[in-house]
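Hi support team,

I'm opening this ticket because the web form for multi-chain structure prediction keeps timing out on my end. I have pasted the exact lines I submitted so you can reproduce it. The total is 592 residues across two entries, so I didn't expect it to be a heavy job. Is there a limit I'm missing, or should I split the entries? Thanks in advance, R.K.
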Amino acid sequence: MSASLRRVLVLGCGLIGTSVALALRAAGVHVHLADRDLRAVQHAERLGAGLPHRPGDPAADVVVVATPPSAVPRVLRDAQARGLGAVYTDVASTKGRLLAEAEAAGCDLATYVPGHPLAGGESSGPAAARGSLFAGRSWALCPHPATSPKTLAAVAELVRLCGAETVLLPATAHDRVAAAVSHVPHLVSSALAARFADADETTLSLVGQGLRDVTRIAGGASGLWRDILEQNADAVATVLEQLVEDLAMAAAALRGRGGAAGDPPTDPLTDLLVRGNRGRELIVRARAAKVESLAA
Amino acid sequence: MSASLRRVLVLGCGLIGTSVALALRAAGVHVHLADRDLRAVQHAERLGAGLPHRPGDPAADVVVVATPPSAVPRVLRDAQARGLGAVYTDVASTKGRLLAEAEAAGCDLATYVPGHPLAGGESSGPAAARGSLFAGRSWALCPHPATSPKTLAAVAELVRLCGAETVLLPATAHDRVAAAVSHVPHLVSSALAARFADADETTLSLVGQGLRDVTRIAGGASGLWRDILEQNADAVATVLEQLVEDLAMAAAALRGRGGAAGDPPTDPLTDLLVRGNRGRELIVRARAAKVESLAA
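Hello R.K., no limit was hit. The queue was backed up. Here is the completed structure from your submission:
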C-alpha cells in the first residue's frame, strides 16, 4: 500500500486500463472503473480490477485515462471539469498531438502528465488483461512545462506500483522513438502478414517460426492502430520513408541494379544485413541490461 | 532404426547439418560427418552427432549436403564423382537456381532430390544444433523429373526420421513461397533492426517485446543470408517490390496524400491493417491445424 496513492480511477477498461487496475489492486490501491461499454466494466470487476465508478465517489488521487488516443483530450477535459481526481494521466502510445489538443481544449496542464507504458499485446479488451503486464517494462512520462512536480510525483508513484520504470522525455522525442520502436514495426508486420491474406494451403504449410515471430504484432486491433498511426502520422512517415528507401535499394540490388555483391561499402544488401545484425545486438543487449538491473 | 536407412553421411557441420545428424543418431542411424573446418566436425562429434568421415568408409544410403546454398552444386558433383552414397539431398533454403546449376555441372539428377527443412534459428554453427530442431516442421522436397522414385523415397524416409513432414512441390514454386515466408521477412526484419544500429540509450530503454519479436531473425549470419538472397534474387525482389509498394502507399497516406481516413476501400492504412489481421489469422490457424494433426 502506498502512502500517497490510495485511490485511483481508471477511465477505459480495455487491455491497458484493466491491467493498470489489476496491478494497482495487487498493490493495495482502491480502484474504481468506468467505460462507456458497461460490459467491459463488469468484466474488469469480475477479474478483481476494482469497483464500478459511481457519481458521488470521492475524488481519486490519480485518474488514468485509458481510452484510444484520439479520445483522450475530450475524456480528460470532461474528467477535469467534473473534478474526478487530483492528478490525471493517460496511457496512449502517442503524445505530441494529444498534448497539443489537450492544451487547445482548455485542459488543466498543471494536474496532467501524459504517459505511455511500453507494454501491450496483440489481444485487446479486459479479457486479455493481467496485473503483471508492466513488470520490468519502461513507462514513458512526458511532462509539459506547466505540469506541476506534485502531479509528476504522483504518476511516477503509480508507475512504480505497476512494477514499471519511469523514463522521462519530451513528447516530441517520445513520438520519434515510439514511431521507430513500435508504430513502424507494427505497420511493417502488418504489410508482411498482408502477403498471406489470400495464401493457399501449400504456402501456409511452409510457414515457420520466423514468419510467426515477425507477424505476431500484426494481430493487433486495426481500429486502434489506425488511430495511433494517425495521431503520430509525421514521425511514423519519416521512419517509414527511410525504411522504404532501404528496402527499395535492396530490391534494386537483387534485380542487378545498384551496388555489387561483396563488401558492405559497395554491396547494399550486405550493408543492410550487417547493420541489421548490429541493431539487433543493441536491442538484445538493452534487454539483458534491464533484466540484470531488475535482478540486482 | 529404419530398415532402409542405415548409414547417412552429412557434408557440412553447421546448425542444420549437425541437427540432422543428431536427429538421425537418435533414430539409430549410423552417421558420418565431414566439413572443411575440422573443428566443426570435432564439435559435432563431441555432441554425439556421429563419427568423422574417413576415406574408405562404405557408401552411405543418403548423403546430406549441408553447405551454404552457393556451394551445393560443386559439393554434390564431387560427392557423386567419389561415389560417397546411393542417394543425395541438400538442405539449402533456395532450390531453382541450385538445381539448374547442379544440372549444368553434370550432376546425376536420378540420385538427387533437393530439400529444404523449414527450421533454423538466428544462431549458427554446431553449438546451436539440436536433434529436435525439425520436430513437427515442414520439409520441402523438390524432385526434378529425372529424380528416381527410389531416391525420393529414401530422402522422404530421412525427413520422417528427423520428425518432420514432407511437402512436395516444384523448385520454382518453392522459391516463390520461400521468398514470402522466409527470405523477405528476413530482409525486412534486418531493415527494421538496422534503424537501431546507432540507437541512443533513451531509444533502447523504450524497446518492448514487439520490436524484439520482429527483429529476432535479423540476428542471422549476414554472409549466409547474403548467399541465400542472391540464390533466390528474382523471387525475393518480386515479393519485396510488392511490400515496398504497400509501405510507400502507407507513408503517402500518413503525409496526407492518397486515400482518406475511414473505410478499408478508401483508406489504404486501414486496408493494410485489416489485410494484416487476415494474413496473421491464417498463419496462426495453419500452425494450430498442424499442432492438432501432430497430436492426433
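A quick check on our side: The CA atoms of residues 5 and 158 of chain A lie 7 Å apart. Let us know if the file doesn't open in your viewer.
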